[in-house]
């Protein structure tokens, strides 16, 4: 199914049993249709003409074709070359064809206006008819001044949907066929003010009105608004899902997409991605600037981290944060496993059993997931998704799991001692893997995306890589490697 529930040519939009939209094929020879029946065509394929919803190679008797559409002759004509009562080429029984040139002419009756010929007698037309070709309200050829002539030869006080009012003051004399008519709209229009496809005032349910034309989809620079009317996007947007500045899907030339807004330049801690248009993507949570997603593509680091070969390593141990002006490490709040400040709302990662919840644009806290019956506002918990990651709720502004750093396992000192004993033996292999990962050349990249390491250079020594517990990340070890984290 295409975006905005729009179907291509030769298909129409239908609903499945579960209420979801689906595109299904029109009948043969239909270029556009309302449904599966043969009488639901809107536009026909080449060499076919539209007649009452059907696509035919030739129009029916009493019709003429114009621009691929069969249109009714004037009711006074048996056949014709146009809609006027003076473009008849033959007449119905009981009317006389008066030729006015090029086989065109008028079909008229011999009886006075308001009567019709019946054998050798003239009988009165229906009260609503000005002229007629027989008895009854469905035999009118023209109407009294306050009525409109329909396609089925009835005179009605107002024109219905699918028709428009047309004044046909033509001819002269007492027997002129004149008055107001209800003419059919173009087949793509539900209501209209004229016969052309550019004169619609409303469209069928499967169509959208773009100015006064009904189209299958709104196109670039527009979005389908209320009542299936195409509304213009904000001038910054190339495509959009609403008319506001923060409802862009793609941007006009020279602009970059940032959280559904189009900006001139990407802000700090973002990089420009060209994979799907010009989009500002967030750097990894530890990068101050970067050139691509993930923890291995940093250009500079945030406070408390050191850059080494495009990776930002923590200056402090787990559970500590770096104080820039004193160049010292201080403990995080007990609620945080990792942090960037001393309070319980400056967390970067949480202990097992808790998830990271966004408080505002700069602050995060650690909460347990709410159990059934718990209220996030009252019970100090957060609503979680299936991966046990906090989601937005009434009481707070949360990020989804894809936008938050997740819990990580803590340092196990026994594991560190054991790893340090092996570090000399595996250093060469580890360093080679790290270099290959930083250049995105490992075929098993997803298994090694996370490197839970930190940088230790407090004594001015050569950089050393110290492994934390679990070199391979678990499902709870995503905060260091989740490149969609919010800027802190």
TrEMBL record:
- Recite the UniProt keywords alphabetically: Glycoprotein, Membrane, Transmembrane, Transmembrane helix
- Reading the lineage from the top rank, the first entry is Eukaryota
| SUPFAM superfamilies xref list | Growth factor receptor domain
Q: Which residues cross the membrane?
A: 414-434
Q: Annotated region Disordered: where?
A: 466-488
Residues in domain EGF-like? 25-56, 72-108, 124-156, 184-215, 232-263, 282-317
Q: Which CDD domains does the record cross-reference, listed alphabetically?
A: FU
Where is this chain compositionally biased, Acidic residues type?
475-488
Supply the PANTHER family for this chain.
Answer: PROPROTEIN CONVERTASE SUBTILISIN_KEXIN TYPE 5-LIKE
**Protein's name in the database:** Proprotein convertase subtilisin/kexin type 5-like
Instruction: State the organism named in the record.
Output: Acanthaster planci (Crown-of-thorns starfish)
Read off the lineage from the record: Eukaryota, Metazoa, Echinodermata, Eleutherozoa, Asterozoa
Gene designation: LOC110988728
């Amino acid at each position: 199914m295409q975006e905005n529930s729009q179907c291509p040519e030769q298909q129409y939009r239908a609903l499945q049993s579960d209420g979801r939209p689906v595109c299904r094929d029109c009948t043969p020879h239909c270029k556009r249709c309302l449904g599966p029946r043969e009488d639901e065509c809107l536009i026909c394929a080449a060499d076919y003409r539209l007649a009452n919803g059907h696509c035919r190679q030739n129009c029916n008797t009493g019709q003429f074709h114009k621009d691929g559409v069969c249109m009714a002759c004037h009711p006074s004509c048996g056949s014709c070359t146009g809609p006027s009562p003076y473009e008849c080429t033959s007449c119905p029984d009981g009317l006389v064809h008066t030729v006015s040139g090029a086989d065109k002419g008028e079909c008229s009756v011999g009886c006075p206006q308001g009567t019709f010929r019946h054998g050798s007698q003239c009988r009165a037309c229906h009260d609503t008819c000005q002229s007629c070709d027989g008895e009854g309200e469905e035999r009118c050829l023209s109407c009294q001044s306050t009525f409109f002539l329909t396609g089925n030869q009835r005179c009605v006080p107002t024109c219905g949907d699918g028709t428009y009012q047309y004044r046909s003051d033509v001819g002269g004399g007492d027997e002129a066929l004149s008055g107001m008519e209800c003419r059919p709209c173009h087949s793509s229009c539900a209501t209209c003010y004229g016969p052309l496809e550019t004169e619609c005032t409303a469209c069928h349910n499967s169509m959208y009105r773009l100015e006064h034309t009904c189209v299958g989809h709104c196109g670039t620079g527009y979005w389908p608004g209320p009542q299936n009317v195409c509304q213009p996007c904000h001038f910054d947007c190339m495509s959009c899902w609403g008319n506001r500045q923060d409802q862009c899907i793609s941007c006009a030339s020279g602009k970059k997409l940032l959280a559904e807004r189009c900006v001139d330049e990407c802000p700090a801690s973002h990089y420009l991605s060209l994979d799907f248009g010009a989009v500002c993507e967030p750097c990894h949570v530890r990068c101050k600037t970067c050139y691509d997603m993930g923890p291995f593509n940093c250009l500079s680091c945030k406070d408390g981290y050191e850059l080494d070969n495009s990776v930002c390593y923590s200056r402090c141990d787990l559970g500590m944060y770096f104080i820039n002006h004193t160049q010292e490490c201080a403990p995080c709040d007990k609620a945080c496993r990792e942090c960037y400040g001393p309070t319980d709302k400056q967390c970067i990662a949480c202990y097992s059993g808790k998830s990271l919840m966004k408080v505002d644009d700069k602050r995060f806290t650690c909460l347990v997931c709410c159990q059934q019956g718990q209220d996030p506002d009252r019970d100090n918990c957060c609503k979680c998704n299936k991966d046990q990651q906090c989601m937005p709720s009434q009481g707070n502004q949360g990020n989804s799991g894809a936008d938050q750093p997740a819990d990580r396992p803590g340092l196990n000192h026994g594991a560190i001692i054991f790893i340090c004993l092996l570090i000399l033996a595996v250093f060469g292999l580890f360093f080679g893997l790290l270099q290959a990962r930083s250049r995105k050349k490992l075929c098993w990249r997803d298994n090694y995306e996370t490197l839970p390491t930190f940088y230790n250079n407090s004594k001015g020594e050569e950089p050393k890589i110290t492994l934390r517990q679990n070199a391979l990340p678990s499902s709870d070890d995503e905060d260091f490697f989740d490149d969609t984290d919010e800027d802190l």
